[in-house]
Request: fold
Amino acid sequence: MNIGIVCYPTFGGSGVVATELAKGLANRGHNLHILSYARPARLDSFRTDITFHEVDLSSYPLFEYPPYDLALANMMVHLIQYAKLDILHVHYAIPHATSAYLAKQILNSKAAHVPVITTLHGTDITLIGSDPSYKQVVDFSINQSDGVTAVSEYLKKETYNHFDIKKDIKVIPNFIDLDRFKRSKKEHFKKAICPEGEKVVTHVSNFREVKRVPDVVSAFDQVLKNGVKAKLLMVGDGPDRPKAEQKCRELGMCDHVRFLGKQEQIEEVLSISDLFMIPSGSETFGLAALEAMSCSVPIISSNIGGLPEVNIHGETGYLCELGDIECLGRCATEILQDEELHQRMSANARKRAELFELDKIVTVYEDYYKEIKEGLS
Reply:
């Protein structure tokens, strides 16, 4: 099949999932066309079976903000006509599903119908989509899609609760490349960061407010006060990084914390990690947690959103109520101090991650494409 995939190019979950899905589909012999306003972060090598199309945003004095949704719709029309797309799969409702509907209307009398599938990822529903400025547009655009998927049962329920959706929503979870995200020997790396054999606690995010990065620092301070020799690795960057750095200074424990910024080879950091902490205020799936689990790292997470569907309390780690710093610190300390518990949870984490293996989920998407196409023929 000739498949078009539309996504944001950022480090966020939707862009990562869309790009990795494109790679997985290409490995099965499909031709992929990726549309975005910049090259996606995970599209990092040349392939003849994946073509990237950059949506051009011409700048005119009339427009304070260039109309990306219109330029995207125009590019969709072009690809449907000339690349002979069999499926157009858009990731993130705003504005991708809206642009896809416009493209279909433009082509209504010029080309055979191309099925549009919309995958909902999270903030397009829980944050942006619920804004009254967009809600009716989101309602309409999702209902006009030929197929709709969500990355978790939680997100499916939230979509039905907050929108007037008439379409069936199929849950297809996020996935993991088990060959890439696996624990590898990086003793030299760990020795450089932990010269005295300290444990490593890691957090990875885009450092937005919803990720609650100061909570990570506060919880780690509890770990230190409980007598655990450890280092905290903060991976990523964003608007709340200064708050996290200030929290380190307030608590007087900056010597134990390293801010590493954005990292492409995150699996190398996870391979030296003993624990992963993700106390998010909203998480519709928890892809960062799954990547850590695939590297045999136990998880301490908030008991919110889709995280309980990934991190199983008492098996792969622990769940704490939102904002419960004491719980985060206590649970982290327990895992780091009990070697038998740590080994058991590490093994369980990897075993759990194997249920979300890339090829298994790509098969589900591939079958769903065929189902939607056959239903329209």
Notes: Residues 274 and 327 are 18 Å apart (CA to CA).
